[in-house]
Design brief:
- This protein has 5 helices and 5 strands.
- By secondary structure, it is of the alpha+beta class.
- β4 and β5 form a beta hairpin.
- It is elongated.
């Protein structure tokens, strides 16, 4: 139970006040049998957002450290160690994304299967200020 729930429970069940059990009056709304019997609606199928896969692949293939830093959302003024940037760039160059495998992961987040050097990966992209940014990668079995 949350702290708010505990606080409310303590406030409602104390010995110092009247019972917290609500009284039912004739003005209390009730559910009709037809309302109770209604089947719950099916959840909406999430729509797959437009993700510029070809553009992302082009950036990754370019090997351009500045473009890749922008793709991962690094601030322009970020002081990135050149050796680390080179390593990141080297790891991402040649990634092949599967546009048919794009799946919504949450609000403004999608996953895209990718292959890098023959190994399977899952790329997580986040929509930030109208642009898709590569937020996370994980190797998959």
């Amino acid at each position: 139970m949350s702290l708010i729930g505990l606080a409310l429970l303590g406030a409602c069940s104390g010995d110092d006040g009247p019972s917290a059990t609500p009284e039912v009056s004739s003005s209390t709304p009730t559910l009709e049998a037809t309302e109770i019997a209604k089947a719950p609606e099916e959840p909406a199928t999430p729509t797959v957002p437009d993700v510029p896969v070809a553009e992302i692949e082009q950036i990754l293939a370019s090997g351009d450290g500045d473009l890749i830093l922008d793709l991962v959302g690094a601030p322009a003024e970020a002081d990135i160690d050149p050796a680390a940037l080179s390593e990141i760039t080297e790891l991402l160059v040649g990634a092949e994304l599967d546009p048919d495998g794009i799946a919504p992961f949450g609000d403004g987040v999608v996953t895209i299967p990718a292959v890098v050097d023959g190994r399977a990966w899952l790329f997580y992209l986040v929509l930030h200020n109208g642009e898709w940014k590569l937020a996370l990668t994980e190797e998959t079995p």
